[in-house]
Please model this.
Amino acid sequence: MRIEGVYPPIATPFDDRGRLSANALASNIHRWNDTGLSGCVVAGSNGESPLLTFDEVTRAVRVARQAASPDKLIIAGTGRQSTAATIVLTCAAADAGADAALVVTPFFYGAQMTGDALLRHFEMVADASPVPIIIYNVPKFTRLNIAPATVARLAGHDKIVGIKDSAGDIGQIIDLIRLCPADFCVLMGNGPAYLSGLEVGASGGILALANVAPRECVDIWRLVRAGRSEEALTIHQRLMPVGRAVTSGYGIPGLKAALDLLGYYGGDPRPPLLPADSATRAAMRRVLAGAGLLA
Model:
């Protein structure tokens, strides 16, 4: 499987009782279908994956698969702290219609997560998985960085097809591309590093920003592939305040507020996350307007 292009780690909508809203999720995906995205990630970090039950993950995958165009890939975030739990959820997500699984590095016992421990974890998951596996490296949340040399060893497994790297280290991206086979996909998970990563050979991006600026993120990818980097840079620079706002700035509450402002369904996040307050919503309105995304 060649995974390239742009994928938003989509927000998970909840109803006014805090339950997964299948209708809102389907409605959002119907709108994203027409934006040039290559698919979406369900139950990723921005989808509040740690706050979802196994049943909610599989239900969200099923709704996404039914709502998405047939040519779109559905990637499910299935990484859990134990290898056994990750395997159970990965198999359930595949049965619900996921085309691939995004598996975060287990991090709770961080000091013991050596290269050999991570190698065994991902190989065991891949051996048991009915679908291809994408490694998810997100040191911001895990306080753990998987070394490119370890990824290169894992890239030899026929079921491990790529990595989403959110570290934002272009040197590390270069090492991943240099050390891994040519058909191993390196996907950017860090908005500020997105353009630079594409220019050194990344195959695409899984970006929070793509929830609210999908066409623009796709345009950057297409322009880089066409050798029109200056045009891509102009768009990238315009979007960066939005990218920061929906990640390090205001996080998931800000992302969901931005979706509401743009006519998608965002709603409130699940506790313990707090909903966006009026100041956050006003700030998101200003940053979206400044980027030309909101009239």
In short: The mean pLDDT is 98. Residues 229-249 form the longest helix (21 residues).
